Amino acid sequence: METKEKVNINVTNYNEFWNLLNSKDKDNAIVAMSILEQSDLRDSLPYILLLFKNHSASKRAEWLKESPILSEKLKTLGVVKDTDLTYKWIIDMIINKCTNEGIQFIIDKFTIVLHKYTIEWGFDFMKDIDMKLTLKKDDKE
């Protein structure tokens, strides 16, 4: 019996999935979703949620229609096409469930947005500051 090797979405290939999902060719999105539905949800969840966060509910519904297995997996976590995927919601969802690499990836993306907003809110000095947020190390480590 042949076993399929799971392809997980991670820091290394996140942009490839982003490009597939944002391609003008709808077949590329179908390919991306079929790979995602076979991935290990625990390892891939931060990246999947971020991909979904950056797209409309109608676009997510379109993708999930093509991927019923992933749709069901996400439903068990409370993620449906119109879930409001804020950074807080995503962090709360993944904080004790996913790898530190995946959590840090979300924090890094949030940091970019936070930096941008602080400048828009009039904190011009932030243009000259590099922001870096990191997950606190456990005292047990």
In DSSP terms (H or I, runs of 4 or more residues), the helix count works out at 7
Shape: globular
User: What is the residue-mean pLDDT, rounded to a whole number?
Assistant: 88
Tally of separate domains: 1
Distance between the amino and carboxyl termini: 41 Å
Sheet having the most strands: none
Instruction: Give the C-alpha Rg.
Output: 17 Å
Q: Structural class, judged by helices and strands?
A: mainly alpha
Low-confidence stretches: none
Estimate percent helicity: 55-70%
Q: Strand-residue fraction?
A: under 5%
| Helix and strand pattern | HHHHHHH
Q: Got a strand count?
A: 0
Explain the overall architecture.
This protein is an all-alpha fold and 141 residues long. It is built from seven helices and no strands. The protein starts with 13 loop residues before the first helix and ends in a 21-residue tail after the last helix. The mean pLDDT is 88.
